Amino acid sequence: MKFNKKDKEVFYAKASDFFVDIAKLVFAGAVLSGILKEDVGIWWLMACGTVTVAISLMVAYYLFQLSRINKNK
User: How far is CA 65 from CA 32, 40, 43, 58, 68, in A?
Assistant: First the structure.
């Protein structure tokens, strides 16, 4: 199945939004777990949360850049 330029632009933009939402949810979960004093090591929780948020935001930024590249072509 072939996608035209507009379809690719929309796909990359929506995928970028999805990864930003994932990053927000992971951040909120890590903060709430830390506040509620769940039975998880706080340093382990913050380290895993930070890495996951950073990776999600990098993927979102990459997809956002792809959507802009396809828009300009």
Answer: 31, 36, 33, 11, 5
